[in-house]
């Protein structure tokens, strides 16, 4: 029998203006990759140039200022972001670019963008040469507080969200608060959905803080938004590091609270529903179901509903009413897909109170449909 273990360790850094020449966070994070200077390939979300047209030049200037540590392997590659970029064809095109830049196992791919780009570029890095180091610089509040600090990479395939993917911990994560300054309100709301998610099942005090700070966050208070990002990211990181199952070989995935329906709703809407809106809907559905099952008090559900509304997260009922020829809601197929995704055993996280949870292994379809009806009627 062969037995070995590999310790994983990566740090999330919090900074501002990461590409300012005087900022040492990036080049220090790259130390130890290989012999200096490290060859680095940047994948940058194209949409960022609307707000930061000088970003590629800033990246090049940073590398020149630290040429003893960092060397550009090629000019930064611009790639459109958003959920539509999570396609195997995009990953393969990125691999072609890595090959053209002659990246090797001593190189590093730095990904600058939102969660979808982190997913697709991280997947490409993980499969190229059996795995290049990747360093993530998330640029949305959602990716800074959730997916950007995790260990998963993936693309959508055959109409299924994240059907192809892998676990590949990053070399480091750098959360740059400067990127939060220009976020549209919808992206702030999306991050709030994931923050509410972890608060609802893990942290009652954080839930109370979100309730108090929601008006300031939605009014553009950068300090409050940065605090939301950091607290949510810390909860996600602690769960990954301490739950004993970072690569999800088991079935219970509490941080996917609200996600069985959210993932299906996103796909049914052909990505017209944002991830944040879908997660907000998923949480309301599951919590209303928990009330019907006697697991959760109605007052806790009402508090969740009020908080989601304060973050301007709508409930888009039309996609929930899509049905098959037999009259069954199409979203209900998400339960079976979620079970398959978990490896055969269904585990759904349901709150028992704000900040507390339970795992259930079976769902009453009739009660779940009733829960959806009640949420649609705002009851």
Automatic annotation (TrEMBL):
Domain 3-dehydroquinate synthase C-terminal: 192-316
Domain 3-dehydroquinate synthase N-terminal: 81-187
Any one GO BP annotation for this protein: aromatic amino acid family biosynthetic process
Required cofactor(s): NAD(+)
EC number(s) from the headed UniProt entry: 4.2.3.4
Alphabetically ordered keywords of this record: Amino-acid biosynthesis, Aromatic amino acid biosynthesis, Lyase, NAD
Record-level Gene Ontology MF annotations: 3-dehydroquinate synthase activity
Coiled-coil intervals, chain numbering: none
InterPro entries per the UniProt record, alphabetical: Dehydroquinate_synthase (IPR050071), DHQS/DOIS_N (IPR030960), DHQS_C (IPR056179)
Superkingdom of origin organism: Bacteria
Keyword Cell cycle part of the UniProt annotation: no
NCBIfam families in the record: PRK06203.1
Protein name (record): 3-dehydroquinate synthase
């Amino acid at each position: 029998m062969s037995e070995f273990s590999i310790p994983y360790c990566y740090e999330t850094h919090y900074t501002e203006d990461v590409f300012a020449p005087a900022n040492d966070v990036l080049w220090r994070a790259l130390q130890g990759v290989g012999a200096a200077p490290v060859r680095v390939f940047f994948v940058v979300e194209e949409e960022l140039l609307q707000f930061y047209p000088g970003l590629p030049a800033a990246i090049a200037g940073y590398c020149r200022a630290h040429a003893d540590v960092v060397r550009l392997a090629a000019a930064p590659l611009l790639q459109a972001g958003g959920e539509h970029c999570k396609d195997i064809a995009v990953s393969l095109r990125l691999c072609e670019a890595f090959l053209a830049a002659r990246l090797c196992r001593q190189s590093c791919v730095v990904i600058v963008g939102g969660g979808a780009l982190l997913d697709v570029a991280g997947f490409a890095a993980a499969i190229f040469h059996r795995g290049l180091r990747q360093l993530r610089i998330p640029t949305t509040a959602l990716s800074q507080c959730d997916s950007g600090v995790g260990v998963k990479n993936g693309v959508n395939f055959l109409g299924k969200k994240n059907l192809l993917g892998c676990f590949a911990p990053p070399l480091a994560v750098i959360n740059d608060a400067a990127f939060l300054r220009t976020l549209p309100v919808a992206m702030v709301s999306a991050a709030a959905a994931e923050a509410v998610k972890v608060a609802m099942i893990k942290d009652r005090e954080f839930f109370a803080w979100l309730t108090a700070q929601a008006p300031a966050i939605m009014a553009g208070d950068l300090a409050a938004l940065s605090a939301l990002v950091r607290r949510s990211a810390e909860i996600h990181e602690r769960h990954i590091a301490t739950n004993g199952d970072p690569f999800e070989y088991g079935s219970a995935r509490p941080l996917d609270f609200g996600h069985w329906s959210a993932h299906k709703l996103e796909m049914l809407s052909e990505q017209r529903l944002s991830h944040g809106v879908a997660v907000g809907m998923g949480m309301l559905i599951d919590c209303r179901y928990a009330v019907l099952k006697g697991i959760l008090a109605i007052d806790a559900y009402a508090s969740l509903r009020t908080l989601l509304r304060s973050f301007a997260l709508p409930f888009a009922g039309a996609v929930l009413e899509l049905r098959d020829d037999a009259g069954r809601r199409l979203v209900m197929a998400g339960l079976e897909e979620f079970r398959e995704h978990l490896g055969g055993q269904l585990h759904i996280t349901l709150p028992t109170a704000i900040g507390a949870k339970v795992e259930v292994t079976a769902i009453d379809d009739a009660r779940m449909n009733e829960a959806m009806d009640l949420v649609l009627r705002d009851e």
